[in-house]
Amino acid sequence: MLSFISAKEAAEKWDISQRRVAILCSENRIDGAMMVGNMWIIPSNAEKPIDKRTIRYERATKIELKPFLKWVGGKTQLINEIEKFLPADGEQVLTKYAEPMAGGGALLFSILSKYYFEELYISDINPELINAYTVVRDNVDSLVSKLSEMQAIFLPMNENGRKYFYYNARDKFNALQLSKETAVEKAALFVFLNKTCFNGLYRVNKKGQFNVPMGAYKNPTICDENNLRNISQALQNVKIVCGDYTLSESFIDKDTFVYLDPPYRPISETSAFTAYNTDSFDDNEQIRLSQFIERIDKVGAKIVLSNSDPKNVNPDDMFFDDLYKSFKIHRVEATRAINSKAEKRGKISELLIHN
Questions:
Q1: For residue 147, what are the contacts with CB-CB under 8 A and spacing of at least 6?
Q2: What pTM did the predictor assign?
């Protein structure tokens, strides 16, 4: 005998909203669904329909964009999960996109590759990173010229030659003050160091000096000219800001999709070494971020936040469950990208927190 479940049960089973289930039923996209009284019931063996939630955002002409930097903690493996939170058919069309903690921009470049938003905003507290984004957007010809020259010199060198070149570039990067006049050179050195340093880390000492050693890459791509030029074109409509994520509050409104990727809360005592600012993003900062998220939630923005899952280490750690108790917490599987011990590199749970 065929059994049925409620729209609420189907929503929990398929991990979508109850309102979304009702829309799918009304569009006859769930076989066997029927209205009984004032509620929908769904066959318990019904398959979740393929959602058309991103069709309205798709660009007429798509172009593949890849992050131009390697970035620890990048969200490439979570992109498909995050994009599921774009509003679905029958829901409000969002016209603005904000990423106030841009980092390496994995999600940003996926959005720019495939979707259309009228206004876009990115920011970060790292001035060197934001300078690189700005130079790619505004002065890509000069950047490509400098990177091509560095690549032509560096790649044919033996190991000792590469070490000399790398550490000389690192010293020059640290000595060069960022200004309008030095912006292109600083960006070129930044990209070069990122492509040739250990694991693409950006780490500074207490003096604010970049101190990552050289990596062991046989043939690193220092200048990906086509990608840089495509990114430059895609960034023309993007507002780029250096500063705290709260500066985005004046941009964000009810028509905005907001993605926040803060420094992850450490899940072990040694996992916080990747921070690139000298001030730790501690639990007080996580709380300050949650207060910001509550404010932009009140204006009606669509919000997605990623973070580590403390339950990987301590099943009783309710820090984020308590902090975001008024939001939805979605646990997804991810691969730990960096650990000095091979046996500790594997699948872990990460959090996607959303409204």
A1: 188, 191, 192, 222, 223, 228
A2: 0.80
